[in-house]
Amino acid sequence: MNPQNPYEQSSIPPREPQPVQNGQPGYPGQQNVMQPQPVRPTQFNPLPTPRYDPTQVPGPQQPYPQQQPVAQSQAYQQQSQTQPSAEFPVDYLNHIAPEIKAKQSHRFAIFALIGGVLMAVFAVVFMMINAGGPDFSEQAKTIQVRINTLATVTAAQQNHLKENDVAQTNATLNSALTTMNTDLTTLMKERGMNVTKDANKTLTASEKAYGATLAKKLDDSYQRGTLDRTYATQITYELTLLRSKLNKLKTTSNSKSVDTFCDASIANIDITLKSLANFDATK
User: Fold this and answer.
1) Is residue 143 within 8 Å of residue 242, measured between CB atoms?
2) How far apart (Å, rounded) are the C-alpha atoms in residues 110 and 121?
3) Quick check: 243 and 210 in contact, CB under 8 A?
4) Which of 192, 193, 215 is nearest to 144 (CA)?
5) CB atoms within 10 A of CB 227
6) What is the pTM of this model?
7) Does residue 30 register a pLDDT over 70?
8) DSSP class of residue 8?
9) Where are the beta strands (DSSP E) in 167-248?
């Protein structure tokens, strides 16, 4: 076809159509090309249209869950593993039960220890009470040697005392000590004790040294001219010790004769102590 004259017929003969192949018409020199099959669209099921119920009150909308950061999520998981869950109270009690039992066991052990110590102390005190302390013979020997020591010292210092009240008190005390020694010797013989043979050598030597120290102290006071005041103080101390020994003998003895001896001796000592106290009050 001439482009300048579109109505002019072309010199090229037209092609005849070829027979139909595979149901499709064709032309010579044309290859059969498989035509693409049309794709059927998938059926789309729209969501059902919600029905409006005038009686239903719309509830609050649920917010979309927010994703926690990875580090925060891991920390929460670790915390949830260490802390007991409130949904399982039995597991929580099982977790803390061993600690409570341990504390209770320690508390019971402390109470048991305290109870054992108290029982031991009570047992020792009970044994000491039942033992009754030293027997009569030992206490009598100790009291007798002390009476002899004080009798010797008071007799030696009688002429050195200047104050009449002190000298008279000393003479009365020396007489009372002599009486006490005689009465105690009688009690010891009544109980089958031989005063001379049964004397304790260790006790005798110790008491002899004690008497020598006491006599030297009073002699030194006499040399300084202060014997009367020193004598009153020292003899008050010595008689207080002797009175304590007599009270102990009376407490541990169940003899009426021993009680009588102790009461009489303590009464004589109290008279002397009162006289010495009156002398100290005037000085």
Assistant:
1) yes
2) 17
3) no
4) 193
5) 21
6) 0.53
7) no
8) S
9) none
